[in-house]
Amino acid sequence: NSVGEGCTDLKREYDQCFNRWFAEKFLKGDRSGDPCTEFFKKYQTCVQKAIKEKDIPIEGLEFMGPSKEKADS
Amino acid sequence: MKIWTSEHVFNHPWETVTKAAMQKYPNPMNPSVFGVDVLDRNVDQQGRLHSKRLLSTEWGLPSLVRSIIGNARTCTYIQEHSVVDPKEKTFELQSTNITFTNMVSVDERLIYRPHPEDPEKTMLTQEAIISVKGVSLSSYLEGLMASTISTNAGKGREAMEWVIRRLNTEIEEFAITARGTIRTPMAAAVAEK
């Protein structure tokens, strides 16, 4: 389950995709790209929001999202 | 500060154990872990997979206590960074608590590797460093936590066996279904002739 209750379905979709790629491609030495990026993006948007709402002190998250632009300028 | 270490051998090859470890939660042996979220994932230049995950745990305080403290405050969050090296066959995980850090710090490190003497087996080395801060009896509390970690590590290994069995069942069921679907079109082709 996801820390964001509404994100569990998105998480499951991503997990299924990832577990398949991990077992059938990555562990067998297949270096072809990760096919799960779309699922991951949708899932991440949901989770990042839940983390902010619950005020969970994640380290290193400042590299993602709007603050990235601030660092560039 | 207390350091706890352990070594364990799984009678399964490294790939099986690594797949299971990635899907370890939820499982019936570690009921306090109720949430796992992937925060980031990428493959580095050497082909190793890095994952950053958030584990949400709930220690099951009696509901009376929870109603006083409030639900949100009884959740403990753990941040985990792991690296899978498919060439070297290592799966290394490091985790630390990110809540209650002013009271206690638990840093854990796990490494899964093929057994040096038997490639069909996997060796797990585990280590936890526990520090209880600013409280007297801290070494007693640290000892208590170490024994809890030891018990949980045993459950964690049972959990791994449970996940491995479940994955094997899924594979068998899939194979049975696949054989069934192949047989039907062949039978239809023979009948047509």
Automatic annotation (TrEMBL), chain A:
InterPro entries according to UniProt: MDM35_apoptosis
Gene Ontology CC: one annotated term: cytosol
The entry's keywords: Disulfide bond
Record's keyword annotation contains Disulfide bond: yes
Any one biological process term the GO annotation gives: phospholipid translocation
Molecular functions (GO terms): phosphatidic acid transfer activity
Family the entry assigns: Belongs to the TRIAP1/MDM35 family.
Organism: Triplophysa rosa (Cave loach)
Name of the molecule in the record: TP53-regulated inhibitor of apoptosis 1
Catalytic activity: a 1,2-diacyl-sn-glycero-3-phosphate(in) = a 1,2-diacyl-sn-glycero-3-phosphate(out)
Pfam families, A to Z: UPF0203 (PF05254)
TrEMBL record, chain B:
A Gene Ontology cellular-component term: mitochondrial intermembrane space
InterPro entries named in the record: PRELI/MSF1_dom (IPR006797), Slowmo/Ups (IPR037365)
Domain named PRELI/MSF1: residues: 1-172
Top-level taxonomic group: Eukaryota
UniProt-recorded name of the protein: Protein slowmo-like protein 2
